[in-house]
Amino acid sequence: MLKNIDPILSPDLLQVLAAMGHGDDIAVVDANFPADSVARHTITGKLIRLDGVDAVQAVGAILTVLPLDSFVEAPARRMEIVGAPDELPEVQREVQREIDDAEGQSLPMASIERFAFYEEAKKAYAVVATTEGRAYGCFLLKKGVVFF
Hints:
It catalyses: beta-D-ribopyranose = beta-D-ribofuranose; alpha-L-fucose = beta-L-fucose. By secondary structure, this protein is an alpha/beta fold. It has one domain: RbsD-like domain (RbsD-like fold, 3-Layer(aba) Sandwich). Helix content is 30%, strand content 17%. A six-stranded mixed beta sheet has the order 2-5-1-6-3-4. β3, α4 and β4 (110-112) form a beta-alpha-beta unit. α3 runs parallel beside α4 (90-103). The two termini are 25 Å apart.
């Protein structure tokens, strides 16, 4: 155990988050997402599992150590609902609150069409699979810079 580190952040996930560079994305996905097959295409080529953790908890924990990129328009992105791209399901509203709390300001997520999301997730540094049971609990977070 480490002090002041959210216990949701497994050793494998902490290693990935530390190894990521500015501008790298991490995909946090729900239980229905094809996480294993998509993860094989990522930079690490491996899947990080957070069994028993929902997407909101995962994003909240990740944002305790991961700065979002302040040099891009949309450092946080969400998968759009098929046929209703502007609709925000509860899971996405909850993640939006986690982002806003972590950033100390409103930082609206951009949306990505479902199949485009799959392609963007393949370009990510890694995929984090949660056991989020609600549909459209899929997010991309772009790592920013830590200023010393």
